Amino acid sequence: LIEAAERLPNPSFIVATDRGIFYKMQQRVPGKRLIEAPTRGAGGSCQSCAHCPWMAMNRLSGINHLLDHWSQKSEILIDPALAEAAMKPLTRMLEFKASQSA
């Protein structure tokens, strides 16, 4: 996200991400208008706030370690119906991105 904000010529972006990344974006592209996507705020549910303490715990070194030392016990299985439902917004985002590149 940060690199895209730097690279793209757009003067403004609506940004839906963690507050920490949003802050870093503001630092790296001070001349661009960054609009924080609306959420329900700090009182919102885990699905609607702009800060996830669990995501903030992730570090590249930890992700790299997991990829290097992956095992069956690292796998998380979810209900196929949930996986299918989760793919719908992801697919729409990818289709939107592809339509912008065309």
Structure description:
By secondary structure, the chain is mainly alpha-helical. The protein has a domain of 58 residues. It is built from 5 helices and 2 strands, in the order αβαβααα. The chain has a two-stranded parallel ribbon. It is extended, with a radius of gyration of 17 Å. The chain starts with a helix and ends with a helix.
Features:
102 residues, 5 helices, two-stranded parallel ribbon, mainly alpha, 50% helix, 2 strands, single chain
Short description:
The protein is mainly alpha-helical and 102 residues long. It has a domain at 1-41 and 48-64. Helices cover 50% and strands 8% of the residues.
Topology (SSEs and partners):
Elements: H1 2-7, E1 12-15, H2 19-28, E2 33-36, H3 53-56, H4 60-68, H5 80-101
Parallel strand pairs: 1-2
User: Number of helix segments?
Assistant: 5
Overall body shape: extended
Structural class call reads mainly alpha
Strand order of the largest sheet: 1-2
Helix content: 40-55%
Spatial separation of the terminal alpha carbons: 20 Å
**Mean of pLDDT:** 82
* Helix-strand sequence: HEHEHHH
State Rg: 17 Å
